[in-house]
Amino acid sequence: MVLKQPVFVAVAILLALSGQALAQPAVAAPCNLIQSSERRQAGLEALRGGRYAAAATALQESLDACPGQHTVLLDLSRAHLLARDFPRAIGAAERFVELEPGAVDGRLALANAYLMAQRLQDALREAGAALKTDPAQASALKLKGNVEYLLGQLDNALSTFVTLLEHHPNDEEGPYMLGRIYFQESRIDHAKGQFERVLKINPKSYKAYDNLGLCYQALGDTEMATRHFLTAIKLVDKDHPDYDWPYANLASLLLDQGDAEKAYGFASRAANRNPNSARNFYLGGKALGKLGKNDLCINWLERSAALDPNYPEPLYLMGRVYSQLGNEEKAKAALEKFRVLKETTSRQRK
How many other C-beta atoms can be found within 10 angstroms of the C-beta atom of residue 274? Predict the structure, then answer.
């Protein structure tokens, strides 16, 4: 039997009939648990199906049907986040944290929403708040370390990922991120050791194979670099159709070896997988230039420059190719943009 009125109403009527004087209680929001549950399930199904806007609508309806179901706010935040509606994702997570300030999952949801919105200091604060409650919480350590890495706080990030590794030795993200940081610091042997550790945990880690390729390339072992890039490509070919890095990395290596034709083939595959990467189009354009296909080269380089106006390499190469084509006006304009960008970058680094 389903009660059609909230329980507190029936209690108030009984007490009034017994002659007891009551102070007027605060009226709680009505709750239809059945409707709320149905709409939440519909929202979660929409999430699984990649229909993020529909998921957000259903989850908001679930919350409206029963505002006391606080955990729906976390589902709603995730739906907005996947729909890339960062302000609403943050708003839903903030509301949950207000209602449940001690809940680690709320702090993590809010930290993740801040991270996706590029509010890095806010993300770092919330990850830290989660770690005050649970210092060994894996997701909080990962969030904190990744934000520190993005902020350029490499020593802090190293410390955080070492802590993650100590508490969770079978979590592959710890050694993977340590490897990334060591590689950035040119500590290639240390980086190589961490990526090899990842493969002991997960022998199918295509990211570890790809990064090991970069390590071997930095060490001058092009044969081993090629082998690892090709292994990464084999692992991502069908199962990870959006992952383009090993294709681009191998294209770059082949260009260094003077094999422009093969380099263009891998750069093309990288661009097909990720048409929003300026680097992929730059590498393809560079290969086309070496093959003497200057008109096509310019098309690829212009695409690269349009995708990332702050990427200097395609501008420099454009200037050279335009000069070869006899278009000195465009050559001068491209090289001037390159010069200004390099000067700006140099001042920012100082």
Answer: 16
Q: Which CATH number goes with the domain that contains 175?
A: 1.25.40.10
H or E element in which residue 23 lies: none
Dist. CA 83–CA 88, nearest whole Å: 10
The percent of residues in the chain predicted with pLDDT above 70, rounded, is 90
Looking at the domain assignment, is residue 280 inside a domain? no
Q: Are 107 and 115 contacting, i.e. CB atoms less than 8 angstroms apart?
A: no
Cα–Cα distance, 206 to 250 (Å, whole number)? 14
DSSP 5: S
- Phi then psi dihedrals of residue 244, to 5 deg: -110, -10
Q: What is the mean pLDDT of residues 122-149?
A: 96
Number of domains in the chain: 1
Please give the model's pTM, rounded to 2 decimal places: 0.80
The pLDDT value recorded for residue 342 is: 85
Helix (H) or strand (E) holding 99: helix 86-99
* 197 is a domain residue: yes
Residue 194 within any structural domain of the chain: yes
Give me the half-sphere count of Cα atoms (radius 13 Å) on the Cβ side of residue 143.
Answer: 32
Task: Give 125's Cβ-side CA count (13 Å radius).
Answer: 7
Instruction: Tell me how far apart the terminal alpha carbons of the chain are, to the nearest angstrom.
Output: 72
d(CA 293, CA 286): 10
CA-CA-CA-CA torsion sign (317, 220, 186, 247) = positive
Q: Provide the total of helices (H) and of strands (E) in the chain, helices listed first.
A: 19, 0
Cβ–Cβ under 8 Å, residues 127 and 143: yes
Distance, in Å, from the CA atom of 346 to the CA atom of 27, rounded to the nearest integer, reads 62
Long-range contacts of residues 179-187, Cβ cutoff 8 Å, at least 24 apart:
179/208, 179/211, 180/149, 180/211, 181/149, 181/154, 181/157, 183/211, 183/214, 183/215, 183/218, 184/154, 185/154, 186/218
Q: Is the pLDDT of residue 287 over 90?
A: yes
